[in-house]
Amino acid sequence: MKQYLEVFIVLLLCLAGCTATPNATQTPSLPAQIIENKGSDTLVNLALAWAETYMQEHPDVRISVTGGGSGTGIAAMINGTVDIANASREMKEQEKEAARANGIEPIEFVVAWDAIAVVVHPSNPVDHLTLQQISDIYTGKITNWRQVGGENRPIVLLSRESNSGTYVYFLEHVLRQGDSKSELLFSPDTLLMPSSEGISTEIRQNPNAIGYDGLGYVTDDQKMVAIARSPEGPFVLPSIETVNDGTYPISRPLFMYTAGEPTGAIKEYLTWILGDGQAVVSQLGFVPLKKE
Amino acid sequence: MDNGKRIRWTEFVIETTIRVLGFSSIGLVILIFVFLLREGVPTFWEVELSNLFSSKWYPTFGLFGTLPLILGSILITVTAIVIALPLGLMTAILIREVAPPWTREILKPLIEILAGIPSVVLGFFGMTAVAPLLRELLGFPTGLSAFAGALILAYMALPTMISVAEDALDAVPKSYRDAALAMGATEWQTIWRVTVPAARSGIVTAVMLGLGRAIGETMAVMMVTGNAARMPITLDSLFRPARTMTATIAAEMGEVAQGSVHYHVLFGIGIILFVLTFLINLTAALTIFQKRRTGGLR
Description:
The structure holds 2 protein chains of 2 kinds.
Chain A lengths: L1 H25 L6 E7 L1 H17 L3 E6 L3 H9 L5 E4 L5 H9 L4 E15 L7 E3 H9 L16 E5 L4 H11 L15 E3 L2 H10 L3 E6 L8 E2 L1 E3 L11 H5 L6 E9 L4 H11 L3 H4 L11
Parallel strand pairs in A: 1-2, 1-3, 5-10, 6-7, 6-8
Antiparallel strand pairs in A: 3-11, 4-8, 4-9, 4-11
Chain B lengths: L1 H39 L2 H4 L2 H4 L4 E2 L4 E2 L2 H32 L2 H15 L3 H20 L7 H25 L3 H9 L4 H12 L1 H17 L2 H6 L20 H9 L7 H33 L5
Antiparallel strand pairs in B: 1-2
Helix pairs in contact in B: 1-13, 4-7, 4-10, 5-7, 6-7, 7-10, 8-9, 10-13, 12-13
């Protein structure tokens, strides 16, 4: 699926390149500014939407967006091959050290938020869970819906593949609940689906299933579960408001990193993303930054 | 004289071309194998053997237990063949021995069309149609299971098995059948006691080729088996999710950092898969060879 996505992006870029050429001939005095943007697959659609909108408004700037994963993007930024790295996680300490060893001080920008929704079949009577219950379900301690107030049905666990940033985030912040010493892992019975589509297909069909995915990938025929940090509540459904006021417990910032303080076209682009660019964010199912 | 020289010269060019083409395909296979070894062999000293053959596959956390993957592949492939063998053999018998010629003319091309269905289409069909059906009819917790994978694989192995088995039946001399019938055997007795045993080695080849086809299949399997790396050692494992070697490589290769331990382990799995397929093909070749030597039919 990833490969197809990449091919698609490359094609899009070709198209963008073709349409940009006549503009360049019309205004030969303006040299095109090229911004290279690479990284997280979670962010790739959003980054692409930003790039397209921005290029329409600023025909003199050309932005190329590629996926490949947060790690790939950060590594490319450290090596100086891209201007902006997209990441669905914070840079690790080793990565920051590697950057400094290369004479680069990475600058972090939070560009949007992503809520991770826990979803079940619409007929499932369970509509709220605590983080602890979700952790117990995914580690295999709880195996029947009856144990969390549902029907007497086995629980089928659905997850994204282990190389996805969403998988790692869910493991660290839900299964292990942020405890860095914890060694909890997903139960070996967890079905690892190669795509978001795989998860939604199974959730739609199977009343036993539970899954998680970015809010942007949840369709109307899946039921979201309200989540609380503690058994007393409050149990909160994911939405733009609950992510912004911090009451929904499973949300993560999405980042862009630049090598050193951005200047020139890159600075203008990032300023636009943090300002006017936020209008695009909710259309793609992500949560825009709070208005100051 | 002049003419003869020209013929000899063209002859030389054509022969050389054919030779180069023939050797280059062998060369390519060798190159692929060398590449596989170069990328995969480091696994065996980078990862301790006790880790590599443990039952936990969590590559993000340095746990590279390939056992659930190997057993998952074997479970699904063997089940697929157990399902496909009787179906394939019966279809071959129907086409070659029972059906009137005009039915044969329709059935044969239809079966060849089956072989042309892209596996991703079968996978999609399995995910949206077969899996829910299995869950509702047989009461699995989820239809995305080893059994669903085996059903799809059986379907994919069938065309190969049918056409090879059919060729084997075709090679049995008519005199065998005539002799059996003349001695008063019924048609069924002739088929089951004479024709099929005479074509036995060809049928074994059909099974082996089907097996080779099934163990290497990726896309459809990845879509319908649920990809849970659990050890298939309990009795109900067939009706639970499983993860195969091929699906693991396909799902994880895209995002793995080149040259990392995980990358080498994925190639290591490739080597294991290669060795398994090689053994299967070798067995098939040996069966044919043995039969030829003892003067039997192919």
